[in-house]
Amino acid sequence: MGDSMDVDAPIPSTSKPVKEVPPAHNLPWIEKYRPQTFADIVGNEDTIKRLSIFSQQGNVPNIIIAGPPGVGKTTTILCLAKILLGPSFKDAVLELNASNDRGIDVVRNKVKMFAQQKVTLPPGRHKIIILDEVDSMTEGAQQALRRTMEIYSNTTRFALACNYSEKVIEAIQSRCAILRYSKLTDAQVLARVIQICRNENVEYSEDGLEAIVFTAQGDMRQALNNLQSTCNGFGFVSAENVFKVCDEPHPLLIKDMLLECTKGEIRKAYKIMAHLWSLGYAAEDIIKNVFKVCKNLDVDEPLKLSYIKEIGITHMKIVDGLTTLVQMSGLLARLCMIGQGIEYKS
Ligand SMILES: Nc1ncnc2c1ncn2[C@@H]1O[C@H](COP(=O)(O)OP(=O)(O)O)[C@@H](O)[C@H]1O
Ligand SMILES: [Mg+2]
What we know:
It is a single chain. The protein is of the alpha/beta class and 346 residues long. The chain is 58% helix and 7% strand. It folds into three domains: 29-180, P-loop containing nucleotide triphosphate hydrolases (Rossmann fold), CATH 3.40.50; 186-246, Helicase, Ruva Protein, domain 3, CATH 1.10.8.60; 251-340, Zinc Finger, Delta Prime, domain 3 (Up-down Bundle). Strand 2 (93-96), helix 7 (104-116) and strand 3 (127-131) form a beta-alpha-beta unit. Helix 14 (251-262) packs across helix 18 and helix 17 (301-319) packs antiparallel against helix 18. The chain binds adenosine-5'-diphosphate (ADP) and magnesium ion. Adenosine-5'-diphosphate (ADP) binds at residues 30-31, 33-35, 41-43, 69-75, 161, 192, 220-221, 224. Magnesium ion (MG) is lined by residues 73-74, 132, 161.
């Protein structure tokens, strides 16, 4: 008899939320603020201008967009396809990204089937096959792709995106116009972040936005994700909150540490390093941030270059597996010596 009570109770409460449509504010900001036209895409102006001319004439070659993550490669390709195909976008675009299976068979069958399909398009327009992150496709699959590109060249165009164009086989490279994107500048990221903060009524401090830009390092996707995580987690974007969310060593500590090195103050520098170590940061996290901070450190250029070289060498050792506090201290010792103009043998 008690059973029926237990069974009945949860039903009304659980059944209701299921019907509710997720509210718009649940959308990740990277999607909500994905630019819909070329004009909204920040940075890499020259390349985008070229594409925009291509798209007006309708005569677009196969393209590869190569560049670091989060700078708008996929967005550019989607914009281009929308301009070229307008309402036919749904029928005339095949999009395959890294989460799809893209082995040789898929390229042979799916891509080929799509390339053979008849779709009525305005004269001079082509169907578009979008392959995101081509550099993660096996060489076999790329070879299969190359043949398809050739056979269907009068009906279909390929738009490829990748991080490293060297990882795309040469046969494909030579059939495409290669467009290279570079990282966005801090100013470009900042401007967009401020715009989104205004739209979303985000409360922020100036150092909070600086922290967002610092953690993003020219990657807009990272910037927007960090911004949204900080807002969701703390409701206020301050440097402190941003570094808590991103779980990175605080750059101000690292900056102090490097400045102590320039003065030859090994003990003080070591104290900061030992503190970071005790907080549980991995050697790799620390060295990456030491590099980021050193890039913008306010010291003489030659000194900065020597520092960057030492940091790079230590980074290589860390990648090789030498991830101890002793390694990190060794770096500080060398930085102190360089800072004091003392020669040493490595
Ligand atoms: N140049 C840019 N201008 C404006 N927003 C950008 C830009 N690059 C990236 N973004 C933001 O980051 C998200 C991911 O961009 P995407 O084009 O997928 O990057 P990727 O270069 O890695 O393909 C976009 O939805 C957009 O919100
Ligand atoms: Mg992409």
